[in-house]
Amino acid sequence: MEFAKVPEIVHSKFFRPLFNTAIFDGPVRVYFSQNLEAEALKVYFCVRDRLAPLFQNANENEASGHLFVMLYPNATTFGEVFDGITPFEVHELDGSIVLGLNSVSAVEQIEEICDRVVPRIQRDSASGEVILLSSIPS
Question: Where do the domains of the chain lie, and which CATH numbers do they carry?
Answer without folding.
Answer: 9-132 (3.40.30)
